[in-house]
Amino acid sequence: MDSDRSSPSRLKPPRYEPVLRLPPLSDDELQGLRDSISIHGVLVPILVDCDGPVRRIIDGNYRKQFADEFGYTCPEIIQEGLDEEEMRTLARALNLARRHLNTTQRRELIAEQLRETPDRANRWVAKQLGVHHATVASVRLGLESSGQIIHCPNRLGSDGRIQPARKTVAPVFLGAEDRQRRMEATTLIHGDCREELPKLPAASVDAVITDPIYPEIEREYGRISEPEWHDLMHAVVQECRRVLKPQGSALFILQPNYEHVGQMRLWLWEFLVWAAKEWNLVQDVYSWTTDALPLTGTRRTQGLLRQSVKTCVWLGPKDCYRNQENVLRTPSEKTSNRPFSDNEVRPGIGKWPCRNGPMATAAAERGGTTPFNLLPISNNGARGDHPATTPYRLAAWWCRYLLPDGGVLLDPFAGGGTILAAGLDCGASRVLGIERVEKYVEMAWERIG
Ligand SMILES: C[S@@+](CC[C@H](N)C(=O)[O-])C[C@H]1O[C@@H](n2cnc3c(N)ncnc32)[C@H](O)[C@@H]1O
Questions:
Q1: How many angstroms separate the alpha carbon of residue 399 from the centre of ligand 1?
Q2: CATH number of 3-78
Q3: In the chain, what are the domain boundaries?
Q4: Average pLDDT, integer, range 146-175
Q5: 213 CB under 6 A from ligand 1?
Q6: CA separation for the pair 154, 291 (Å, rounded)
Q7: 49 or 179: whose pLDDT is higher?
Q8: The pLDDT value given to residue 5
Q9: In this model, does residue 11 exceed pLDDT 70?
């Protein structure tokens, strides 16, 4: 008798662990797979890392789960010799190639890979995962602009050579048809918004997103005093409120400035309080320019801190339209790797009790975690043709959040058209801009088409 065969250790079945926690299948897909396995068994072998007592499943978690449920044998192929990182990359690649993932889920997998290997070139990541490098670049941009990965100035390419990463956002070359469509969806008015806004029909706009002129700043487009600025903005706010649909809201991006170094001007807060009382401040939101340069006040002799926070004054009704789904953050690896089944109450952040399982499940079900009201957005990639360009990523973040799909966007201080272009990129059916300086209107047309 072969005593070894009957020993408990030989009889003990191997334990299986997933290499990655992938986006869940839809109910329909799960049911389809389950039905198929119940009838045919597992036809496509699962991929595991070894034939030992603990096997990591690189591909086929659900197949294994259903095979076990029906008591079927699950065929396995062993892929040896991969380290942890290579196994995870392969798992993502196989899932991207085979599963019916929606865009958000596909981008989530690419984001995970970028968080794991931020220093690898976009083309390397694209090749590993079998996706287009432009998609990788766009996911990277989102992660960098929300502070989830840092911008790596040098990246390791497929050839093993370190290459400098592009400093600017790669231009997207639109086809003639797309350009035509975007231009037809755009109205650009050359004029003073105080005169032009009253000509727009009431309740015709879904969102106003704008980066206006600031007082007491010397710019090519002029300098206005604080009282002049308040007069202008009071009129603009009232008009924006009139042209917005009942659930629409308005967003004014404002950056404070000094009267003298060490003495701030108060216009921003005076405006904020006035507007909040006059209308309603939906929430206080700030954007943090993560790569703001140190300016005069930060010299050693002055000793002030770097100015890097803009206030995003968000005005509208309490229940105004917003789409949190569109701005969820990709969960951190720590959150993603929490086991779904772990229900134990543990001390969490700041000693607040938390349960790992529900936290991971909530993040996986929603497809992300809630953003903070401080948006970490770098200036990297800003276009320098207008003297005070709004960072595109900030503009696009607000468009994704406030503009319903197919909605109408208004920017009464349109400048070189960054916010309007972002609106079109984010699914606006119409964008409307007003700009006082003619050459910026030209710039905006160029930007849009
Ligand atoms: C901060 S810039 C906007 C930048 C723009 N978002 C971009 O990224 O190109 C403000 C713009 O408001 C314009 N402006 C100032 N006063 C105006 C007014 N009363 N009506 C319309 N435009 C005005 C300026 O000419 C300037 O181009």
A1: 18
A2: 3.90.1530.30
A3: 3-78, 102-164, 176-337+362-448
A4: 59
A5: yes
A6: 17
A7: 49
A8: 41
A9: no
- Amino acid type, 13: P
Q: Structure tokens of 251?
A: 């967003």
Q: Quick one: pLDDT at residue 168? A: 42
- The 10s digit of each residue's pLDDT in 165-180 is 544 444 455 677 888 8
Nearest-CA residue for atom 15 of ligand 1: 213
Q: Is the CB of 388 under 6 A from ligand 1?
A: yes
Sheet-wide strand order for 54-59: 15-18, 54-59, 46-48, 76-78
Q: For the domain bounded by 176-337+362-448, which CATH number is listed?
A: 3.40.50.150
By most ligand atoms within 8 Å of CB, the mutation choice from 199, 287, 413 for ligand 1 is 413
Q: What local confidence, expressed as pLDDT, does residue 9 receive?
A: 47
Which residue has better confidence, 357 or 66? 66
- List the structure tokens of 247: 């659930």
What string of H, E and C letters represents the secondary structure of the chain?
A: CCHHHHCHHHHCCCEEEECCCCCCCCHHHHHHHHHHHHHHCCCCCEEECCCCCEEEEEECHHHHHHHHHHCCCCCEEECCCCCHHHHHHHHHHHHHHHCCCCHHHHHHHHHHHHHHCCCECHHHHHHHHCCCHHHHHHHHHHHHHCCCCCCCCEEECCCCCEEECCCCCCCCCCCHHHHHHHHHCEEEEECCHHHHHHHCCCCCEEEEEECCCCCCCCCCCCCCCHHHHHHHHHHHHHHHHHHEEEEEEEEEEECCCEEECCEECCHHHHHHHHHHHHCCEEEEEEEECCCCCCCHHHCCCCCCCCCCEEEEEEECCCCCCCCHHHHCECCCHHHHCCCCCCCCEEECHHHCEEEHHHHHHHHHHHCCECCCCEEECCCCCCCCCCCCCCCHHHHHHHHHHHCCCCCEEEECCCCCCHHHHHHHHCCCCEEEEEECCHHHHHHHHHHHC
Quote the mean pLDDT of the chain.
86
Ligand 1 pocket residue status of 34, Cβ below 6 Å: no
- Asked whether the beta carbons of 137 and 103 are under 8 A apart, the reply is no
Question: What's the pLDDT at 153?
Answer: 60
Of the given ranges (51-60, 106-115, 238-247, 389-398), which has the lowest mean pLDDT?
A: 106-115
pTM (two decimals):
0.66
**In this prediction, what percent of the chain has a pLDDT beyond 90?**
54
